[in-house]
Amino acid sequence: MTVGIATKPPFGVYTPLVTFFAEDESIDFGAMESHVRRMAEAGVAGLVLQGSNGEAPHLDHEERQTVISKARAILDANGYNQVKLIVGCGAPSVRETVKYIAEANAAGADFALVLPPAYWAPAMTPAVVENFFGAVAEVTELPFLIYNFPTVTSGIDISSDCIIPLGQKYPGKIVGCKLTCGNLGKLQRVWSNLPEDDFAAFAGKSDFMLPGLVAGSNGVIAALANVVPRTHVQLLSLWRDGKVQEARQLQSKLSNADGALQKVGVAGVKAVVSHFFGYGTGKGRRPLGTASVGTLSEEIMGPITALVDLEKSSLA
Fold it and tell me: Where along this sequence does the record place binding of pyruvate (predicted)?
């Protein structure tokens, strides 16, 4: 993809893919293939690789490139060439961020997703963060999205006052943002101040998917889509068809399940997928542990199970 003429990611559901590991902590590519195929068959617009759910900090450069190239190969071999790959490329320095982006580009990514630097958190003033994204945009080999997730960046919360000028200054290079922060006012401000055809502001959780769509979200990037991708696609269809009451009912199911899933961690997401769909395990790379559905309470599993039943009923 040529930087400078890039379009934004297409409207739709994007799954921030988990990374499955074998007992020796090597990547389980068999489980990965099953997962990628299930997502594509459900109708997602794209996959987000090496984000927070993908345990990006636990993968080395070579592993990241292999995951990207294998995901692209799996999609293409199964007739899903249109499914986009957004790849996490954030690092503490501009230099390594640019290197991650170059490697992702070579491996077959369509877009990058970039966190703000957070190692020297007290030094990361709004001006420093804005300069960081600008420096990356000046030399990037892929168009990228700004990733705002204060939980994993020492509390750094990127404001609309930062995102909007960057989108205006670097069209075709900075082409969107993922707002896991849940600030719908921010999403609305970004959507209303940047051209919708060129900039994609994404709600970053299932918990506020429908409110995000109302505020201008380009779909959703949501961890729960690892479990029930088809249900997320269904909500988008209801919204686009103007079936607001039906969409609200489905959103409440998504919100209840997402609230439960947020309590189990990344390994727990994998354990839930393994339990209901028969591939992979709940193993994380250390220091993350291994999760098991058997240890989860009914309070957690109840709303998730109800949603999985709905997902599977759509396949009947």
Answer: 221
Three-state secondary-structure class, residue 94: helix
* Runs of H (alpha helix) within the chain: 29-42, 61-77, 94-107, 126-139, 160-169, 184-193, 209-215, 229-240, 244-261, 265-277, 298-313
C-beta separation of 143 from 112 below 8 A:
yes
**Would you tell me the crossing angle of helices 298-313 and 229-240 to the nearest 10 degrees?**
70
The CA angle 221-257-57, to the nearest 5 degrees, is 45
Q: What span, in angstroms and rounded, lies between the C-alpha atoms of 32 and 152?
A: 24
- 221 annotated as a binding-site residue: yes
Local confidence pLDDT in tens for the 316 residues of the chain: 444 445 899 999 999 999 999 999 999 999 999 999 999 999 999 999 999 999 999 999 999 999 999 999 999 999 999 999 999 999 999 999 999 999 999 999 999 999 999 999 999 999 999 999 999 999 999 999 999 999 999 999 999 999 999 999 999 999 999 999 999 999 999 999 999 999 999 999 999 999 999 999 999 999 999 999 999 999 999 999 999 999 999 999 999 999 999 999 999 999 999 999 999 999 999 999 999 999 999 999 999 999 999 999 987 6
From residue 165, how far is each of 91, 102, 239 by CA, in Å? 22, 25, 30
Return the C-alpha torsion angle 164, 242, 262, 316, nearest 10.
Answer: -140
Domain 12-243, architecture per CATH: Alpha-Beta Barrel (3.20)
Domain residue spans in the chain? Answer: 12-243
DSSP assignments along 161-199, one per residue: HHHHHHHHHSTTTEEEEEETT--HHHHHHHHHHS-TTT-
